[in-house]
Amino acid sequence: MSTQEAEPLISCDRADESSVHQKRGSGVVSDASIPSSPEVVRAKKIIIPDISISDDDSDLFSDAGEDVPDHKISNTDTIIHLLKGNIGPGILALPDAIKNSGLLVGNIGLVVMATICVHCMHMLVNTSQELCRRTNLPFLTYSDVAETCFATSSSSRLRAFASTARTVIDVFLCITQLGFCCVYFVFISQNLQQIFDHYYGEINYHIYMAIILIPMLFLVSIRNLKYLSPVSMLANILQFIGLGIIFYYVFQDLPCTWDRKAFASIGQLPLFFGTAIYAFEGIGVVLPLENQMKTSADMKGWNGVLNTSMVIVSCLYIAVAFFGYLKYGDSVAGSITLNLPVNEFMAMLVKLMMSLAVFFTYALQVYVPVDIINPFIQKRVSPQNYLKAEYALRFSLVLLTFSFAAAIPKLDLFISLVGAVASSTLALMAPAVIDTVTQGERCCWQRALKNVILFIIGFLGFIFGSYVSLRNIINYFIGEDKT
Fold first, then answer.
1. Neighbours of 279 (CB within 10 A)
2. Could you please report the per-residue DSSP string of 425-445?
3. 27-34: long-range contacts (C-beta < 8 A, 24 or more apart)?
4. How far, in Å, are 224, 229, 259, 287 from residue 364 at the CA level?
5. Phi and psi for 139 in degrees, rounded to 5?
6. How far apart are CA 304 and CA 412, in angstroms?
7. In this structure, are residues 270 and 458 in contact, taking their beta carbons and an 8 Å threshold?
8. Could you give the dihedral angle defined by the CA atoms of residues 410, 118, 289 and 394, in that order, rounded to the nearest 10 degrees?
9. Are 275 and 97 in contact (CB under 8 A)?
10. CA-to-CA distance for 276 and 270, rounded, in angstroms?
């Protein structure tokens, strides 16, 4: 979903800065106005555009001063990609999130969570556009934005943290994507286990994981994303059809709302936070899509592409969460597909379709950590071993996610832990910090206070969500929770 996040977008060196100067007309190269950080080797000099150059003009050139080929996407395409990027296995776990919060509190919490996450997405887009204007770079990825905001700060102390900021974002991107992959292993094996146990008797859970492992290794051997496009499209089709069938089941014989608890308990709220923030996993695709839009300005605005997409996503989230919990109550599983009757053909079909969709998406998720980690490995091996090293990395990441999934076969706890640890950092804390650093001395106290509140919300969710998830995982291992 965020496969483009790891693309290197800050150039290593300006091949001919004088030609860029001529191409830009009145652009000036300066190390004084926006000092370059000694820690940042990707952008040795920052090109400051003259105010006479419009934003539209600055987008017409690449950082090498050449025309950018027109491979842009329309607003409709962007909305479709945003919908696909935000709808994954997390949506199937939202009824479980409501179980940990209550029907009333949980749905209000989802509305609040959606509002906060969308606001943070807007902050990230605004910051990216501001930094692109500062540096004359055509576009920036998430980690590029984190590095550049510190590198272009007027504070020498903050500039020293530029490379650290990039590293932190890259690390949490890897944690997030690998966490998704662990969840995928658990999700697929649990759904397959339900189907085959019904027809062939009970088989050990780890057998299904081992069976899945072999095709997973073959799938991640595909190095070119172009060849993954057909399976990605197939995964999206299966996913949306599956959601439609799920709604068919949850709308049948619904009980009254007062039969469900309005509020669970304070102790369970961190689990709700972790699962909910995991579902809002699309912040990683916002900048890559904004970079590819024909009219990137349409991403913003009250009726812009981002708000339109996220309103649709949020309504879908709340519908699945509300009706899923209303239908199954406290017996709802970590994925609502596990509650569907296994003896009915349509329900079995949903489990298979969702499992296939998640399986095909696995290789896309692994692509991001591979793209981040692989350059560090290539520095330490000879060129003739680059390909072998990359395959070793790919297979090692698959085996790593397989090991974690086999060790903790609790889908709800895994989702909550990944959400609390990684998603809260990328979706809440990082955008608040990046926005504050980018504004610098221009940051008013109201904006600073708002960013502090956002950071605190993310930090508390990180601490308490991780603690409760890890505590429940430990309880599972010592035998207190084997359900």
1. 29
2. IIIIIHHHHHHHHHHGGG--H
3. 27/53, 27/136, 34/134, 34/152, 34/154
4. 10, 9, 41, 17
5. -165, 160
6. 34
7. no
8. -20
9. yes
10. 10
Calpha distance 414→399 (Å, rounded): 17
Residue 63 token pair: 């950082």
**d(C-alpha 119, C-alpha 442), whole Å:** 20
Kindly give the confidence (pLDDT) of every residue in the chain, 483 residues in length, as a single tens digit, with 9 standing for 90 and above. Answer: 444 333 333 333 333 333 333 333 333 333 333 333 333 333 333 333 333 333 333 333 334 444 444 567 888 888 888 887 788 888 999 999 999 999 999 999 999 999 999 999 999 999 999 999 999 998 899 999 999 999 999 999 999 999 999 999 999 999 998 998 999 999 999 999 999 888 888 888 888 899 999 999 999 998 877 777 787 788 888 988 999 999 999 999 899 989 899 999 999 999 999 999 998 877 778 888 888 888 888 888 888 899 999 999 999 999 999 999 999 999 999 999 999 998 899 999 999 999 998 998 888 888 889 989 999 999 999 989 999 999 999 999 999 999 999 888 788 888 899 999 988 999 999 999 999 999 998 999 999 999 999 999 999 999 999 999 999 888 888 876 555
Q: Check if the beta carbon of residue 472 is closer than 8 Å to that of residue 274.
A: no
**Bridge partner residues of 115 (DSSP):** none
The one-letter amino acid at 432: A
Sequence length of the chain is 483
Q: How far is residue 88's CA from residue 357's CA, in Å, rounded to a whole number?
A: 9
**What's the CA gap between 237 and 235, in Å, rounded?**
5
Please state, in angstroms and rounded to a whole number, the distance separating the CA atoms of residues 106 and 378.
46
Structure tokens at 95: 């009824």
Tokens describing residue 121: 């997405």
Q: Which residue has the tokens 């991780």?
A: 466
Half-sphere exposure of 107 (CA within 13 A, CB side): 17
Closest to 358 (Cα-Cα) out of 178, 211, 181, 193: 181
For the chain, the helix, strand and coil percentages under 3-state DSSP, each to the nearest 5: 70, 0, 25
What is the C-alpha to C-alpha distance for residues 29 and 46, in angstroms, rounded to an integer? 6
CA triple 349-201-250, angle to 5 deg: 35
Closest CA to 43 of 167, 132, 174: 132
Contact 103, 262 (CB under 8 A): yes
